Amino acid sequence: MPKVTFLRPSGDDIAADVGDGTSVMQAAVAHGVTEIVAECGGTLACATCHVYVAEEHLDRLPPISNDEQEMLDFTAAPRETGSRLSCQLPLGPELDGIVVRCPETQY
Amino acid sequence: MGSSTVIVVGAGQAGCQVASSLREEGFTGRIVLVGAEAHLPYQRPPLSKGHLTGKASRDALWLRPESWFGEQGIEVRTSTRAKHLDTDGRRVLLQDGEALEYDDLVLATGARNRLLRLEGADLEGVLSLRTLDEADEVRVRLEQAARVVVVGGGFIGMEVAATAVQLGKNATVVEVADQLMGRVLSSHTAAFLLQAHRARGLKVELTTTVSQIVGVAGRVAAVDTTDGRRLPADLVLVGVGASPNVELAEQAGLEVDNGIVVDELLRTSAPHVYAVGDCVCAPNPFAGGTRVRLESVQNATAQGRRLAATLTGCPEPFSSVPWFWSDQADLKLQIAGLTTGHTEVAVRGDVSSERFSVYCFSQGRLLGVESVNCPADHMAARRLLSGSTSLSPQDVRRDDFDIKRASTAGSTPAAP
Known about the structure:
The complex is a heterodimer. Chain A is an alpha+beta fold. Helices cover 12% and strands 19% of the residues of chain A. Chain A has a single domain, classed as Ubiquitin-like (UB roll) (Roll). In chain A, a hairpin with a 6-residue loop joins β1 and β2. The radius of gyration of chain A is 12 Å and the shape is globular. The model of chain A has no long low-confidence stretch (mean pLDDT 95). Chain B is an alpha/beta fold. Chain B contains 11 helices and 26 strands. The C terminus of chain B is likely disordered. At the A-B interface, α1 and α2 of A face α3, α8 and α9 of B.
């Protein structure tokens, strides 16, 4: 089972083991990482599941679609190099052990 | 604060948000969340979309994990309702006999689907979709059905109908109005949806309605329309709108008018009683300050967050750009703002390639933007509407118009 670690502004970090195919967003919601709001439930409609992926994992990520690319310009917290919408990151062997930082705000 | 109690009646998206945001705002008192359904709070939007195809797993529906409520010290009562509210004694009585005293009470009672009141509406196979249990039944029956008739071309009806077509069913929508999603969409976008859905194989019958539902041995067999046709059906999905759940508010003597009436701080007419979500009729700056009742995730969560802040000592008027979305097959419809009453539209994008936005104006003022398969336009429109915008229809029609640039040019400082 792939593992994902959420670094939270509070310092109360959470590591989650989830099933293959679960998105990073779903893993966050299922483990009470409330910084990931995911208002639209993962349909790429709201940009409230923004995360910063740690630099060393960036090359393992799936490519950014055009829509995600454009949505990332509308996140509440500043866009940075590792910015992704976590609903677009399905977990599997290639993302096992990924570390993401939660922004201070999503709206 | 540690000794005060907030009771939240209704464990949907709005009620859950109030409870969650109270803790985020540092509220340390007692919180009790009372829900009529057997389930912990869950998301409703996927129920009429991915949940029906089995694409969305049930586990992905929960708004919070079960353990979270305990960790946060939020008491949840499921499968029970508040049946009596005493606003003088600040006491609410639950159906199961429990009496709860409160310092502040939040009504988040939601809405319920309107029913068809005509012959055959109680036949087996005539379904409605709001709750998870109902969605499970629709999913099972949809799998077995060959012919599906959807009564009502609104959000839920169109989402279920589009899903039925994707699953290879013979599906027909019967809509009484002369366009789809009549009250919420511009005629421009509605006309697009009509042809786009027809091109995908959905049948749509406008300006007609159901006269009776015909059964054989207690099971639905066909739908008769008022214009004299008989549409064979193994499954009939009724999606004819919703009514707010206001019985408790009425019993307690609160002001009710198309929902529980609240002021801009989400206060009802009784002291220490507040209301949020689908059950609320609230003054809205995006409706010129008039009172509106909105049924949306955004309204539920934004009101929930706003109220939690008010209850923890930061009272500010509710003012959040309304937005809506509907995924119908591969069409992503998004609406920013409240476009009711618009008199002029300006269209950007390419309608034939199914990517465009319709800007809705009244007296030269932008009311809202409808987008199809243009999520970035939608995000920019929300940003634009959250500030003061002087965007005109002429601006939108200019060749070099760029909504993203327009949305950052106003009161919002440009990104470095």
